[in-house]
Automatic annotation (TrEMBL):
Pfam family for this entry, one: Ig_CFAP47
UniProt organism field: Chaetops frenatus (Rufous rock-jumper)
GO biological process, one term: sperm axoneme assembly
Ranges where the CFAP47-like immunoglobulin-like domain occurs: 82-223
Protein name: CFA47 protein
Length: 253
């Protein structure tokens, strides 16, 4: 869009609305350019010379006499579409036990024209021709590409992170890519080894290098542990104390 003729008083603020409504799961890029000129039409006395600052010169417009006619502010905008949040996956395990569970996550609307992988988190590469051995597998539109993903387990708070981080492990073990439906299936192996009863939540966040963000909530439930032992105390007589001893071992320092 283009806005013109907006007058700003000294130190006045201007809100610029930016609307993002993605049609596909891909990266969208745009630039917001703000061009400011004096209301009276006069130029600033600053003249561009060969020794002038390069970054400064890039952000000005010059009149015929070499003076500064306008000042530019340039704001790049990167839009990442986010899929609607999916239903929660429940991971349930008895306290003091260890559970390994395969979790299958479906990524809808994935584009096959992946680009460079962002610099963060864990990565997974999904070949577009599953089952074939090829460094540059061919996709249906004739381009050569692989689908690259980042995945990360995020927590709602630092307190939940401290409770879950050492008890939970997530690893990508299998990937499938259906070109016709544009659905990528990622299968994760989730390990949960709770030490005490609890109920906490986390989110697997998956990002595709070609664009798109998917979030899958996980609910970790640890139920009551089994009884360790039954202590029987036999009475030696009425109004007389009976004592039995047992040992407790700490699992940590």
């Amino acid at each position: 869009f283009h806005l013109a003729g907006i007058r700003l008083a000294p130190k006045e603020k201007l809100d610029i609305p930016v609307l993002f409504m993605p049609a596909e799961m891909k990266i969208y890029k745009a630039v917001v350019v703000i061009h400011v000129m004096r209301e009276n039409g006069e130029n600033w006395p600053y003249e561009v010379t060969a020794e002038s600052n390069t970054d400064l010169n890039r952000n000005i417009t010059v009149a015929e006499n070499g003076e500064t006619q306008g000042i530019l502010w340039i704001y790049p905008i990167n839009g990442t579409p986010e899929a609607p949040q999916q239903k929660s996956v429940v991971i349930r395990c008895q306290a003091r036990q260890r559970l390994e569970q395969r979790v299958e996550l479906l990524l809808f609307g994935v584009r096959p024209d992946a680009t460079a992988l962002p610099d963060a988190g864990n990565s997974a590469v999904v070949d577009t021709n599953v089952g074939e051995s090829s460094d540059t597998p061919e996709v249906t539109d004739g381009s050569s590409a692989t689908l690259e993903f980042l995945y990360e387990l995020q927590y709602q708070s630092d307190e939940i992170r401290s409770q879950l981080e050492s008890l939970v492990g997530v690893q990508l073990v299998e990937k499938e890519w259906d070109i016709e439906s544009r659905i990528v299936t990622l299968i994760f192996n989730v390990v949960f080894a709770p030490s005490k009863p609890m109920r906490n939540e986390a989110t697997i966040v998956i990002q595709c290098a070609a664009g798109g963000l998917w979030k899958f909530p996980l609910v970790f439930i640890a139920t009551e542990p089994e009884v360790d032992d039954v202590i029987n105390i036999e009475a030696v007589g009425l109004n007389k104390e009976s004592i039995v001893g047992f040992k407790l071992t700490s699992q940590t320092r």
